[in-house]
Write a structure and sequence with these properties.
The protein is an alpha/beta fold. It has one domain (25-324): Aldolase class I (TIM Barrel, Alpha-Beta Barrel). The chain is built from twelve helices and ten strands. The model has no long low-confidence stretch (mean pLDDT 95). The structure holds ligand PBG. Ligand PBG binds next to helix 7. Ligand PBG is lined by residues 118, 120, 122, 166, 202, 205-206, 274-275.
Length: 325
């Protein structure tokens, strides 16, 4: 029929033509690889619900980071899983805490690697919520801000190149920004989990980090999946508070949000291709129900096409190998 269809058909015939006119580029430089650190020695434990993803002890994590860097992946985000948890989450800002030690070990092994430190209380609190609780069992926003700021500074002191608050407390970007500025870390950027939804897609991560809330859920501080205008307001506030990079999380069920944030603000934008999105593909791939590699690449392209500049993904190493081949 019409001209345009015919023209695209000519250009679709050959791979070299398709590559030439492809609208979306995906590069290994877009990836941020999440890593989990645990106490102990010589540990490399696979996370049951996330095949191919491991928890590493500090003595092993540097080697894994080196391998990641050699694949061309420029950045990792580090999550610590402490040995002891308490109501105040003191392990989060301990100088010798697990995340602090992991950051040091990775910077030691691969100084060129960009090491991003996730900042949140949920892995460190015995109740599993993202902050300090009031007597009534609700998260105390303002008390939590102090702890988050202290945690951010301790991670910067350990050598973190970037701080990524994932807690969704109000005012945390400003609190962390001013704490970093006051302690000589004004050069350290903040990547905020700006639009973070209360999502069931985090299930496998919570297994990995042993961070499922002991009671209740996170709907009091994370966003309702039915809302997108609200995401724009969250992003705007985080930018006003000083965020350098904003993030939408999860990615796949929120591609419209990624697109709207990119169009409205035009700032560096990250998307978190979260644990549940990874596990679904891995499980169906294992069953032989989908072509795992093709689905993985299609997902990563879709996140890029939606407008993300950076993708936090457990697929980073697998995708890097495919992009290089
Ligand atoms: C909170 C945090 C979570 C994830 C990243 N940072 C869990 C949560 O909010 O419950 C989830 C990432 C994933 O599912 O891959 N520290």
């Amino acid at each position: 029929m019409g001209f345009p269809t015919v023209r695209m058909r000519r250009l679709r015939r050959l791979k070299s033509f398709r590559d030439m006119v492809a609208e979306t580029q995906l590069s290994v430089k877009d990836f941020i690889y999440p890593m989990f650190a645990v106490f102990g020695r010589s540990k490399k434990e696979e996370i049951p619900s996330m095949p191919g993803i491991y928890r590493y002890s500090v003595d092993c994590i540097g080697e894994e980071a080196r391998e990641t860097f050699q694949l061309g992946i420029p950045a990792v985000i580090v999550f610590g899983i402490p040995e002891h948890k308490d109501p105040e989450g003191t392990g989060a800002y301990d100088k010798n805490g697990i995340a602090q030690q992991a950051v040091m070990a990775i910077k030691d092994a691969v100084p060129e690697m960009i090491v991003i430190a996730d900042v949140c209380m949920c892995e460190y609190t015995s109740h599993g919520h993202c902050g300090i609780l009031t007597e009534k069992g609700e998260v105390d926003n303002d008390k939590t801000l102090e702890k988050l700021a202290t945690t951010a500074v301790s991670l910067a002191e350990a050598g973190a190149d970037m701080i990524a608050p994932s807690d969704m407390m109000d005012g945390r970007v400003a609190a962390i920004r001013s704490a970093l500025d006051e302690t000589g870390f004004s050069h350290v950027p903040v990547m905020s989990y700006a639009a973070k939804y209360a999502s069931a897609f985090y299930g496998p991560f919570r297994d990995a980090a042993e961070s499922a809330p002991a009671f209740g859920d996170r709907r009091g501080y994370q966003m309702d999946p039915r809302n997108a205008d609200e995401a724009l307001r969250e992003v705007e506030l985080d930018l006003e508070e000083g965020a350098d990079i904003v993030m939408v999380k999860p990615a796949l069920a929120y591609l419209d949000v990624i697109r709207r944030v990119k169009e409205k603000f035009g700032v560096p934008l990250a998307a978190y291709n979260v644990s549940g999105e990874y596990s679904l593909v891995k499980a169906a791939g294992k069953m032989g129900w989908i072509d795992e590699e093709k689905v993985m690449m299609e997902i990563l392209y879709s996140i890029k096409r939606a407008g993300a500049d950076l993708i936090l993904t457990y697929f980073a190493k697998d995708a890097a190998r495919i992009l290089a081949s």
